[in-house]
Amino acid sequence: METVIVKGVRPDSLTPRQVGRAFQTLLDDGAVLRVDGDARDDADWWHARPYRPRHRVSLFDIEYYLAGYRRDDDLNFFVGYVASRPGERVIRLHARIFYKDSSLVWRVATHVIRTPDENWIGKGDVKIEKRPDGEYLTSAEETANLPYEVQGAFDDISRESSPSVYDAKAVPLILRNAPSNRLRPFDDFTRPRRRAHAEYQINRGRPIARCLRPDDPSSIEFAPGFAPDFNSGVLESTRSGSKLYGGKVRKFRILSVNRLVQYQFVATPTHVWIDHPQTITTEVMSYGVRTVDVLAAEEITIPGFEFHYLDETEDPPEWHSQIPVGFAGEPSELDPARADASPWIERMQTIREFRRKVLKQNRRKAPPRP
Of 43, 116, 140, 315, which cross-links 127 as Cys (Cβ 3.0–4.6 Å)? Predict the structure, then answer.
């Protein structure tokens, strides 16, 4: 499978009017706009002002068209469109919802579950997670991450488009409403991944990083060649902002030593963390995400604030936490359902090395374990 190192992706230098004309040209040339939600039987829904494309980002043979920045009760998001252009022929054009996760990574929503009692966004493919009390089907959220090459461009557009406009209609218009409790995405998401997996796997399908001792972040180990290259592998950095993380945000794209995968390190005034590693393959599916992903222990990709709260909907109430036991710090002032994960993150040798070599900071003492 083809791989390429790309940097410097920014929004295309087009006015909203020019972007709209380019989008209309795709349709005039025979592209069919496909939408999975309530708008699937309305050929003209996208002409409504809130959903007209205003920005474009190009990567490989993919074009991302973005309308205005929207929000509902749960998400800040773009209504977007993914156009695939191998050569000069458009073979598909799909409406999507792109949103920014609390870990500050841009993702695509795969489906939605909306009932009187539930409002949940599909977060990519699924995986089996082993826990002390059994095996559970969970979302492999990293499979919904947009390519790291375009993350900075999406940040730029969201900053330019802020503040977001409230819109409770967009998500059900665009996304397929799935049966209650369906975690698994539909076949148009999983089929390209299965085909690509049969053709190409990173590290022969084995994790490129693992935690040797569950209660020891210093025991995280990378497979040979897959560690981040802080000396000559730093490709670029982009800037954005976050209220949750205290202001300015910098995202660094860093290659592995063997140049097979890339990492996105996030540095904020309050935290540093690593987003899930990605390939540098060029195949991107109709959801705007790569068909090939990378396996790595979840312990290396815990964001600065992560879920840690008492779930009072259970009887009796139960603690729900995505931070390793004994490493959850104080709750966020802005989102009390999330706790500070620094007691874990700052004990990772990779984070210490990143601070020293890339951020040029003196070694930061890890917060004490609670």
Answer: 140
